[in-house]
Specification:
Number of strands: 12
Order of helices and strands: EEEHEHHHEHEHEHEEEHEHEHHHH
Distance between the termini: 47 Å
Bound molecules: flavin mononucleotide
Length: 329
Amino acid sequence: MNLNTTYLGLTLAHPFMVGASPLADHLDTVKRLEDGGAAAIVLRSLFEEQITMAESARIHQMDPLDPEFAKALAEFPRPEKYPLAPDDYLEHVRRVKDAVRVPVIASLNGMTSESWARFATSIEQAGADALELNIYEMATDADDSAMAIESRIRDLVKDLKASIRMPIAVKLGPFFTAFGHVAHQLERAGADGLVLFNRFYEPDIDVQNMTCVPRLEFSTSAELLLRLRWLAALHARLRCSLAVTGGVATPVDGIKSILAGAHAVQLVSAILRHGPPYFSAMREGLARWMESKAFSAIEEVRGRIDGRTAGEDLFERANYIRTLQSWTA
Ligand SMILES: Cc1cc2nc3c(=O)[nH]c(=O)nc-3n(C[C@H](O)[C@H](O)[C@H](O)COP(=O)(O)O)c2cc1C
């Protein structure tokens, strides 16, 4: 049984890997993740705000000590509150690379195309096998058009590709007007892979105190469906790698993701719930299922569910109408 997969040009022993999170913050856990069967590891993100604070003492070109901006910047953590400062992050990349044999992917998280992205060169020099670029874009500014936002992201990827040689995966949210177009633009800009989708941590409202309450909950399989839909719609139209993140809770979810076209399947919530050995359970679940279906290689499985048919949008619409019409009271 050949479970090998290629993701961002890297060979993974199987598709199941650690998603960006604090899971890989400590070397002993990093080793446990590899022993538990993780095929690759994405490190937690280093944030644009951390880098610009360290380089220029500014956040989004504003000085937190300037009374004019103090309120706007008050909610950002102070530099010492982040677990890894930029220099520590580089040292962490080096140490994790030394500790494990599986590919190690660093992560940068930002929303503008300022100088922070140049930090990617240092990450490459520290030995990371690839970079995941988490584009966090809420698009709430009424003066910021979809086209402007998409151009900004595309230019960021283009600039990065011009300055580093390691592969880049772009992790995005699903809230684009025309996601298919965005995906193609990023591929054309040089993205080696796309990671679908960012999960937004939607704050709740405390009605007693009438305040926002931050909420960070683990995902469930229900969140996977949106990802499956887009993987199935895009995999045959793109040449770059596709990874899924968000809602992979069981081995069956992993199999579905590969059937829908994923080269790699990232897990965070499931590992926080069950621990690193869950990677072996994911791999064994996939291997047993492939055996039961007489498949001998991942490539025979990947993308068997194709959301792209001759009618394309018409096919989508026909399914939509059929689903709504099948409901009887
Ligand atoms: C505690 C925690 C910390 C996270 N930190 C990061 C991060 O630093 N960078 C990032 O891109 N995603 C981060 N994520 C998001 C995960 O990488 C992942 O996309 C999300 O949890 C959905 O995957 P899951 O359903 O397997 O949990 C974090 C998630 C959790 C739960």
